[in-house]
Write a structure and sequence with these properties.
Blueprint (H helix, E strand, L loop, with lengths): L13 H7 L17 E4 L4 E5 L7 E4 L14 H10 L18 H4 L4
Antiparallel strand pairs: 1-2, 2-3
């Protein structure tokens, strides 16, 4: 059965799910928490290991460190291409459609 937008994201294994969904009471931003190791960016459908250097950098990963499954290809380039097609040339400085702030742009392309 296909996953809908209101269902929680299914990750490859329980360990990946636990790391992606890690919640810290002291650090609401995962990039500020040394215990938060893996970041998942839904709008790009990509995973990464957080670099805890005070910024928001991460190293993209293509395989799960726990179960070894191949992770989905990043949709980052497709995201920028889709926005450019809609006339957005600088999404960081423009008010982009809400669907592009989540994974809705590729999960429900007609919405």
């Amino acid at each position: 059965m296909p996953q809908t937008e209101d269902q929680p994201r299914q990750h490859c294994c329980a360990a990946m799910t636990a790391h992606v969904n890690h919640v810290c009471k002291q650090h609401p931003d995962p990039f500020d928490c040394a215990d938060h190791l893996i970041f998942y960016a839904p709008r790009f459908d990509e995973y990464g290991i957080i670099i805890h250097d005070g910024g928001t950098s991460m190293i993209s990963i293509h395989y799960c460190p726990w179960c070894g499954v191949r992770l989905p290809e990043s949709r980052r380039d497709a995201w920028f291409d889709a926005l450019e097609t809609l006339g957005y040339d600088d999404p960081a400085d423009q008010d982009i459609p809400m669907a592009f702030q989540t994974d809705a742009w590729y999960r429900n392309p007609l919405a």
